[in-house]
Amino acid sequence: MKHPRILLADDHAPTLVDISAILAPHYEIAGTLENGLALVEAARRLKPDLIVLDITMPLVSGIEAARQIKTDLPRIKMLFITMHSSSAYVKAALDAGGTGYVLKSALREELLDAVQSVLRGQIYVSAGVSNEHLERY
Fold first, then answer.
1. CATH number at residue 47
2. Is residue 131 part of a domain?
3. For residue 84, which of 29, 126, 134, 37 has the smallest C-alpha distance?
4. Each residue of 83-135: pLDDT tens digit?
5. Among 36, 87, 116, 136, which one is most buried in terms of CB atoms within 10 A?
6. What is the distance of C-alpha 108 from the center of its chain?
7. Residue 133's pLDDT is what?
8. Which residues, in sequence order, are CB contacts of 133 under 8 Å at separation 6+?
9. Are 112 and 106 in contact (CB under 8 A)?
10. Distance from C-alpha of 91 to C-alpha of 82, rounded to nearest angstrom
């Protein structure tokens, strides 16, 4: 059985190591990147099933990278991982094409469930996120 391919992007290398350690036993890691520009280029080349990405990255933000990727490759699912718990960030991530939003503080507890939900076509948002604007999603 073929494992879904996941591309990872975060500007903090230890976070990429943590995410890889959590996901690698269950999924194929297509690559890891540390900036939004490299993510856009890799997504176009590798066409993963899912991208796990940070919002705050150099060169191109995760939000802008998601917009660019969704324009070219609308079938790729995107799961944001971030330290930002504000509903404004969640709204921006979902508006950019994300279908998941996990707080880095809950990564170990929630990442696998979030990935499974997003791959099934469901929206996943960390329990610790302010939900004032989430009803419309």
1. 3.40.50.2300
2. no
3. 126
4. 988 888 999 999 999 999 999 999 999 999 999 999 999 999 998 775 554 55
5. 36
6. 15
7. 46
8. 87, 88, 90, 91
9. no
10. 13
